[in-house]
Amino acid sequence: MIHTSGDIQTRIDSGYGSLTPQEQRAADFILDHLDDLAVYSATEIAASSGVSKATVSRLFRRLGFADAQEVREQARSLRRRGVPVGPAADAAVGFAQHVAAERANLEALVAGLSDGRLDAAAALLAGAREVVVIGFRNSYPVALHLRQQLVQARPGVRVAPAPGQSVAEELADLGPRDAVVLVGFRRRPSGFVEVLAALERRQVPVILIVDPGARLPTAATTRVLTCPVDSVAAFDSYGAAMSLANLLAAAALAAAKGPARARIGGITSLYAELGELE
């Protein structure tokens, strides 16, 4: 029995054995080109798989789609949510498009910070008793990088959750004198909103770093920094996110002034004492 809900791969897999040989040929092509599905028409699928356009249209209807346009819209919807699907491209063209997309992300990031919100977030980080940087899944490397930058500017900075650990014990002792940087780019795990709400109920100041498509309920005191992760390739790009981590840490360093410079001097001396760096 063919399932007529879920993504197209799930629908094909559920009833592949009930398809006709011609439909299976079209289905095989689709499964081999899921990354490109957002740009293929029914005519192109038919020509590439060696079947008629009528066969492709019949296959789509059996899978529960009205037409090829609905299939393309589903593929595009998945991409907007961060699912790694996208057209394959010639390497040279792909590099040029990638650079253009990265530039657009950086420009959008900077434009979104022009109202002073970066400085406000940095002042919060500089003055907090303790700073916890939280990141899940694909946001964890950004959180880890931000922590590594911040810990050079001030003490009492940690990243959470620790690998394999839960979140509650990381947050239990935090209060209004602390600060949390909560990094949550698209395809956030279930429970993300609950973490944000728990922090706000405890009046913990939060800096929320998210993609522009995030629609999250936030308190008036939560500082939101948006960062695009769009890419012409199959996977989201975190180049602008790493730049935001750099900008935020540098602004926190500037806000901390003398104590931060003294800390950096002490760390540098200890590097030499321990022989940790070349």
TrEMBL record:
Residues 6-82 form the HTH rpiR-type domain. It comes from the Bacteria. InterPro entries: Homeodomain-like_sf (IPR009057), HTH_RpiR (IPR000281), RpiR-like (IPR047640), SIS_dom (IPR001347), SIS_dom_sf (IPR046348), WH-like_DNA-bd_sf (IPR036388). This is RpiR family transcriptional regulator. The lineage of its organism: Bacteria, Bacillati, Actinomycetota, Actinomycetes, Micrococcales.
